[in-house]
């Protein structure tokens, strides 16, 4: 566990989430929620705190049941992350602030811990394809400076250490049906597995 790391996790309103998974399930909002809950449940033991940014009251209630704090934020991924990072920084001027994507349904706590342990500076973990970003960490006391979006791995690599190592579950964000197949090979979290029943079991 890294006691100096606080994570901000953006969670889009469920009715608008995971549009590239149309056809994979009859209930896309339920699958998006399951991704977020499995991701956050796996992340919780690895860090000091998790703050979710979501405008969705249903997501907020589900997170509260897990003991996870959430707050609404502005529209847009980087804007939401700026908002959450500012809140976390106001609470602790020295912490490492991390941004973790909420679509990592195979995430293993131990793999996140290994990646966090490998970070010695501002750092990011590229996604499986090497183009996107699944985790971004600030320097201690530093700004998060999120540059998520298309080509974010290249954008973050300009001034952040690249975290590559034995943590495939941290790299496997799920945007497409193929990503979901890869995540299933790694082992899906329990809520995602239940949301995909009977396919998963
Ligand atoms: N709070 C908040 N989170 C967002 C927003 N846009 C994206 N996210 C979150 O950012 C992460 C990465 O987003 P994407 O992989 O693009 O997910 P998505 O937008 O649901 O998927 P697509 O509809 O297929 O693009 C996920 O955790 C989303 O829930 C936003 O406007 N606000
Ligand atoms: C926004 C990003 O995620 P995705 O490509 O999964 O939409 C990103 O990787 O920067």
TrEMBL record:
| UniProt-listed Enzyme Commission number(s) | 2.7.7.105
Taxonomically, the superkingdom here is: Bacteria
Top-level EC class, please?
Answer: transferase
Q: Specify the pathway.
A: Cofactor biosynthesis; coenzyme F420 biosynthesis
Q: Which NCBIfam families match?
A: F420_cofC
Q: Member of which family? A: Belongs to the CofC family.
BP-aspect Gene Ontology terms: F420-0 metabolic process
Q: Which residues bind phosphoenolpyruvate?
A: 133, 149, 152
Q: Which HAMAP family match?
A: CofC
Record gene name? fbiD
Q: In its UniProt entry, what is this protein called?
A: Phosphoenolpyruvate guanylyltransferase
The record ties this protein, via Gene3D superfamilies, to: Spore Coat Polysaccharide Biosynthesis Protein SpsA, Chain A
Q: What are the record keywords, sorted?
A: GTP-binding, Nucleotide-binding, Nucleotidyltransferase, Transferase
- Entry-linked Pfam families: CofC
Q: What does this protein do?
A: Guanylyltransferase that catalyzes the activation of phosphoenolpyruvate (PEP) as enolpyruvoyl-2-diphospho-5'-guanosine, via the condensation of PEP with GTP. It is involved in the biosynthesis of coenzyme F420, a hydride carrier cofactor.
* Reaction equation(s) it catalyzes: phosphoenolpyruvate + GTP + H(+) = enolpyruvoyl-2-diphospho-5'-guanosine + diphosphate
Query: One GO molecular-function annotation for this sequence?
Result: phospholactate guanylyltransferase activity
């Amino acid at each position: 566990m890294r006691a100096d790391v606080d994570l901000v996790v953006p969670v889009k309103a469920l009715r608008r989430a995971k549009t590239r998974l149309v056809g994979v399930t009859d209930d896309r909002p339920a699958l998006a929620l399951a991704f977020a809950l499995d991701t956050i449940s796996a992340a919780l033991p690895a860090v000091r705190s998790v703050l979710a940014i979501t405008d969705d009251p249903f997501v907020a209630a589900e997170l509260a049941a897990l003991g996870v704090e959430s707050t609404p934020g502005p529209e847009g991924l980087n804007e939401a992350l700026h908002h959450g990072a500012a809140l976390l920084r106001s609470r602790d001027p020295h912490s490492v602030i991390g941004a973790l994507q909420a679509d990592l349904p195979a995430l293993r706590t131990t793999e996140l811990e290994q990646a966090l342990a490998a970070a010695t500076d501002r750092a990011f973990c590229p996604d499986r394809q090497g183009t996107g970003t699944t985790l971004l960490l600030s320097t201690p006391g530093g700004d998060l400076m999120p540059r998520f979006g298309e080509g974010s791995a290249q954008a973050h690599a300009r001034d952040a250490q690249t975290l590559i190592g034995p943590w495939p579950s941290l790299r496997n964000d799920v945007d497409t049906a193929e990503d979901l197949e890869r995540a299933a090979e790694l082992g899906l979290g329990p809520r995602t597995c239940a949301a995909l029943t009977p396919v998963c079991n």
